């Protein structure tokens, strides 16, 4: 990697070598030239004219080459040094020191625009009095020339530091150069340089503009990096709060659930002795089954709160899709009757078989039916249809509610998203997690009739392979 001292040293070495070669040639050839042609003083002065022109050409070419290499090397080195720094304050101080080496100024100040875009706050300085930066004044972009320099990206030069809020006291005899810092075609800050009038490096506006663009991009990246880090920390804190909340809720629910489940099992035992087919026995059976399912859900909530991903262990078994639906429908019947809703189940013939975890996938169907029941008005209709398409078994749950707006069709499957501000926002999220664990898909569509929505669950069909019967052989 080419550095600033290497560039200066190389240019000085090349210049000295050119002078040495030319001087050797002149001192070797000139005496011979005078001796052969017997030149007079006037003729000798005329003969030395090309020598002086050559010296001037070497000087001009070396300065031009130095300027070109400087325009390439300085921005490259500045970007390389700042690329490894992610802290904004550290990058600002490093940049101020590097620019002081490159430009040889009296002082350098790096300022960054506030969020309102109207005030420049000094964030790093070089060559200023000790303790100046913490109490440095901010500059407003009220001056037309200053605002034009920042907004349009033009380098602005002031012949005197008089009246300058940063350099007037520390460097009263200096001239001031303002270099705008722009990133993504937007103003980000300002690079202020106090320099002498004889400093030719700070008069190279192309070099200053290139340094300003590289510096602005590097500092803007630092700002973005720090913002992403802060967002990640906030998300971690929110995730921790969510986990604490779920654990608290789960523990608070366990005690009353245990009481409900115990009472329901005792009631079911008495009713089955009295009349196992009666309505009271069926209701007690639904209460007991619902209490057991809620207990399993509370355990899942604890798992969700303790793990970054909801990935329970599945106990897979071949199961006709209609069995999953019938168990969930039995649990929903009391709720449907309370709102005078009707539920129809249509099962294709033959009903497809899938490889699922029975308890967890009944929970998926129950969550979909519960969601449809909640959004369907009293007296409404719910439909469940089980069908096959290609190599998939498809379960469709249709409601007659208000439907799902297009902007929320993906969001409703995210944890804690509550489009209608009801529930905890976990039902559909858990359903999606369980479906994807079974290598399935879940999505929602609007009903063709224009009212309500249909939630689809697609699972790979399970094909039972029957072993081939070996053909009998005869002796």
UniProtKB/TrEMBL annotation:
InterPro entries registered for this protein in UniProt: GAF, GAF-like_dom_sf, HATPase_C_sf, HATPase_dom, His_kinase_dom, HisK_dim/P_dom, HisK_dim/P_sf, Sig_transdc_His_kin-like_C
Enzyme Commission number: 2.7.13.3
Catalytic activity annotation: ATP + protein L-histidine = ADP + protein N-phospho-L-histidine
Presence of the UniProt keyword Membrane in the record: yes
EC supergroup of this enzyme: transferase
SMART domains cross-referenced by the UniProt entry: GAF, HATPase_c, HisKA
PROSITE patterns per UniProt: HIS_KIN
A molecular function GO annotation: phosphorelay sensor kinase activity
Keywords assigned by UniProt, alphabetized: Kinase, Membrane, Phosphoprotein, Transferase, Transmembrane, Transmembrane helix
Sequence ranges assigned to domain Histidine kinase in this UniProt record: 248-463
Pfam families on file: GAF_3, HATPase_c, HisKA
Kinase in keyword set: yes
TM segment ranges: 17-36
PANTHER family: HYBRID SIGNAL TRANSDUCTION HISTIDINE KINASE C, TWO-COMPONENT HISTIDINE KINASE
Protein name (record): histidine kinase
Organism: marine sediment metagenome
């Amino acid at each position: 990697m080419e550095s600033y001292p290497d560039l200066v040293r190389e240019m000085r070495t090349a210049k000295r070598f050119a002078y040495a070669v030319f001087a050797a040639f002149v001192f070797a050839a000139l005496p011979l030239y005078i001796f052969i042609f017997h030149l007079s003083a006037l003729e000798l002065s005329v003969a030395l004219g090309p020598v002086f022109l050559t010296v001037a050409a070497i000087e001009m070419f070396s300065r031009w080459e130095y300027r070109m290499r400087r325009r390439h090397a300085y921005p490259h080195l500045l970007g390389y040094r700042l690329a490894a720094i992610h802290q904004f304050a550290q990058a600002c101080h490093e940049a101020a020191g590097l620019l002081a080496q490159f430009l040889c100024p009296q002082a350098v100040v790096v300022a960054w625009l506030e969020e309102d875009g109207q005030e420049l706050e000094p964030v790093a300085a070089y060559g200023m009095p000790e303790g100046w930066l913490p109490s440095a004044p901010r500059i407003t972009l009220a001056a037309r020339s200053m605002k034009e320099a920042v907004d349009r990206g033009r380098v602005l030069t002031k012949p005197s530091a008089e009246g300058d809020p940063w350099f007037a006291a520390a460097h009263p005899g200096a001239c001031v150069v303002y270099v705008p810092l722009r990133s993504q075609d937007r103003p980000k800050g300002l690079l202020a340089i106090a320099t002498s009038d004889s400093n030719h490096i700070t008069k190279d506006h192309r070099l200053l503009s290139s340094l300003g663009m590289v510096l602005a991009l590097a500092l803007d990246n630092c700002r973005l990096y720090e913002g992403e880090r802060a967002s990640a920390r906030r998300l971690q804190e929110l995730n921790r709060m969510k986990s604490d909340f779920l654990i608290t809720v789960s523990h608070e629910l366990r005690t009353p659930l245990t009481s409900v489940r115990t009472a329901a099992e005792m009631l079911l035992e008495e009713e089955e002795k009295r009349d196992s087919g009666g309505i009271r026995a069926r209701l007690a059976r639904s209460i007991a089954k619902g209490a057991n399912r809620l207990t399993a859900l509370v355990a899942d909530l604890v798992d969700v709160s303790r793990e970054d991903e909801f990935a329970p262990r599945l106990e897979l078994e071949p199961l006709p899709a209609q069995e999953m639906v019938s168990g969930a429908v039995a649990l929903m019947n009391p709720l449907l009757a309370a709102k005078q809703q009707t539920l129809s189940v249509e099962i294709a013939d033959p009903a497809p078989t899938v490889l699922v975890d029975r308890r967890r996938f009944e929970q998926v169907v129950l969550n979909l039916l519960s969601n449809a029941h909640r959004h369907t008005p009293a007296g409404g209709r719910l439909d469940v249809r089980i069908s096959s398409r290609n190599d998939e078994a498809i379960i469709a749950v249709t409601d007659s509610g208000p439907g799902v707006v297009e902007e929320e069709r993906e969001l409703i499957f995210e944890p804690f998203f509550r489009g209608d501000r009801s529930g905890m926002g976990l039902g559909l999220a858990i359903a999606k997690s369980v479906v994807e664990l079974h290598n399935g898909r879940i999505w929602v569509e609007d009903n063709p009739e224009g009212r309500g929505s249909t939630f689809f669950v697609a699972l790979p069909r399970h094909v039972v392979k029957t072993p081939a019967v070996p053909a009998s052989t005869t002796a």
